[in-house]
Amino acid sequence: MSTDLKNVEYGMEKIFAEAEDFLPLNGTDYVELYVGNAKQSAHFYKTAFGFQSLAYSGLETGIKDRTSYVLQQGKIRLVLTTPLVPDSPIYEHIKKHGDGVKVVALWVDDATKAFEETTKRGAKPFMEPTKEEDENGYVVRSGIHTYGETVHIFVERSNYNGVFLPGFKKWESHYNPEPVGLKYIDHMVGNVDWGEMNKWVDFYAKVMGFAQLVSFDDKDISTEYTALMSKVMTNGNGRIKFPINEPAEGKKKSQIEEYIDFYKGPGVQHIAVATDNIIETVTAMRDRGVEFLYVPDNYYDDILDRVGEIDEDLEPLKKLGILIDRDDEGYLLQLFSKPVVDRPTMFFEIIQRKGAKSFGKGNFKALFEAIEREQENRGTL
């Protein structure tokens, strides 16, 4: 093993050691989106993204104010929730933000302890520890507020054997398109307002015991026109990674400013989902109607000089517009969808890691220029 690689591994170990263990997290339990029409959104994520029917909650299960469809692929669970009445905080959330992520739920061994540890460190309570039960056992959930109107819910489910949560029944469907190879959530990115990045970095450090994995300033993430700054926070075992973005001064309006303008505040910008074969995954998603950002052919002219040898044939990567970057531990392949909602807010990243632990720093310029082309088309640059 090279000295450089040993240094990188030591650095990663040091970062994870800095993350405190008062809040052990087992992984992402689910991500809940508040949407205008959960039935139709579920059809979209099944058709375009290959998610499978898992669970349902609504009038038929005794819930009178909302409907939720739960979809699963690999270890990823999406909950799509729509209000059934106008006098509802869910309705108000959609009215203000459009479709978007409300809950990033984290799987824990002890939801009561997670609530106590975070609130005593300054977190604003969202949901007191609550025991929810049915014939399949019980779940304990609690929650705290984070940036904007986004919340974290802690889910303790070791004593539950049901399909998802109490109040849900198995969702049987004869329409189940094939999965596209999505495995788990790699990271989730939050956009915050001017000057707020360090505030939320401190929140994740002090309140949740996270450590800073990497940071990028406006020199790293900029083009001729726009710029942003970003810091990546990780928990102790590295299973949860939250990059936090804020705008930086540029000649024109950055993608972060555009997001905040249309989302009406901070929120989850994108969900990065991992695959073992990005060529197959992106091909399947494109064939099903998912639109991705366009990358010019000249991006690939000297790409192998920059990233070195890769296992994949370059031609299919070029055809699909897949970006490539390398760090000291390997390389990664990534591609970003266009917004999946009408407002230019939430999108998805498809990522395949071939050893790399980084976030595609070498692709930032190409990515930003691609986003700027879309902003120009929308008249928001």
Overview of the molecule:
This protein is of the alpha+beta class. It folds into two domains: 27-170, Roll (2,3-Dihydroxybiphenyl 1,2-Dioxygenase, domain 1), CATH 3.10.180.10; 182-378, 2,3-Dihydroxybiphenyl 1,2-Dioxygenase, domain 1, CATH 3.10.180. 27% of the residues lie in helices and 33% in strands. The chain contains ten helices and 17 strands. The strands form two sheets. Strands 6-7-8-5-1-4-3-2-9 form a nine-stranded mixed sheet. An eight-stranded mixed sheet has the order 11-12-13-10-14-17-16-15. It is globular.
Helix and strand run: HEHEEEHEHEEEEEHEEEHEHHHEEEH
CATH architecture of the largest domain: Roll
Q: So, the CATH homologous superfamily of the largest domain?
A: 2,3-Dihydroxybiphenyl 1,2-Dioxygenase, domain 1
Q: What's the CATH C level of the largest domain?
A: Alpha Beta
- The tally of domains stands at 2
Shape: globular
Summarize the structure.
This protein is an alpha+beta fold and 381 residues long. It has helices at residues 3-18, 38-49, 89-97, 111-119, 197-206, 255-263, 278-287, 303-307, 314-320, 364-378; strands at residues 27-34, 52-57, 66-73, 76-83, 100-107, 125-134, 137-145, 151-156, 169-170, 182-191, 211-216, 227-234, 241-248, 267-275, 323-327, 330-336, 347-354.
Keywords for this structure?
single chain, 381 residues, alpha+beta, 2,3-Dihydroxybiphenyl 1,2-Dioxygenase, domain 1, 2 domains, 10 helices, 17 strands, 33% strand, globular
Helices and strands in order:
Blueprint: H1 3-18, E1 27-34, H2 38-49, E2 52-57, E3 66-73, E4 76-83, H3 89-97, E5 100-107, H4 111-119, E6 125-134, E7 137-145, E8 151-156, E9 169-170, E10 182-191, H5 197-206, E11 211-216, E12 227-234, E13 241-248, H6 255-263, E14 267-275, H7 278-287, H8 303-307, H9 314-320, E15 323-327, E16 330-336, E17 347-354, H10 364-378
Parallel strand pairs: 1-4, 5-8, 10-13, 14-17
Antiparallel strand pairs: 1-5, 2-3, 2-9, 3-4, 6-7, 7-8, 10-14, 11-12, 12-13, 15-16, 16-17
